[in-house]
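tokens incoming
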């Protein structure tokens, strides 16, 4: 149906624009990307771009929000199931994963942290310091995973992260000195 914002053609156009923006983000910072450049590469006119987005930042925010929305089932199940669900989502979107963890060009991690704070248990299961520590560790593991080309499956990486958090094999680290 022409004129309906969520018809297949509109969804396809938005997808092409978003993929173009993500591709451009791989080689340049967001503030160096112009709407004209996106339109030329996506083969859409400026009016079409502005029908869906206010600017490049709005387009990136839309990409991030869609990704976070896809994580909503993250809150159900066990923590390991939630972690595996998150890893699978990143595994399926390698381009976005690279931009988040290697390039650091989006606000996605901050959006995800807010989602977790809003939907977490009351009172929180871990205190702020533990949360920061564990979050930074997981983020570093994910960054290495993405940078290395995601060689482990999401299931394997979930196990690695859980074993790391629980300090499994810690006693086997004979050369580790504080």
């Amino acid at each position: 149906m022409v004129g309906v914002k969520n018809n297949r053609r509109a969804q396809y156009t938005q997808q092409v624009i978003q993929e173009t923006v993500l591709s451009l983000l791989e080689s340049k910072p967001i503030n160096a990307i112009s709407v004209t450049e996106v339109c030329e590469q996506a083969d859409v006119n400026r009016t079409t771009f502005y029908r869906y987005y206010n600017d490049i930042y709005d387009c990136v925010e839309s990409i991030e929000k869609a990704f976070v929305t896809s994580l909503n089932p993250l809150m159900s199940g066990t923590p390991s199931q939630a972690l595996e669900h998150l890893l699978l989502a990143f595994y399926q979107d390698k381009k976005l994963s690279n931009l988040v963890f290697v390039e650091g060009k989006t606000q996605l991690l901050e959006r995800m942290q807010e989602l977790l704070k809003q939907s977490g248990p009351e009172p929180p299961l871990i205190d702020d310091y533990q949360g920061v520590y564990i979050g930074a560790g997981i983020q570093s593991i994910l960054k290495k995973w993405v940078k290395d080309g995601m060689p482990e499956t999401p299931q394997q990486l979930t196990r690695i992260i859980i074993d790391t958090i629980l300090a499994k094999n810690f006693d086997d680290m004979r050369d580790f000195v504080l």
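note: The radius of gyration is 19 Å.
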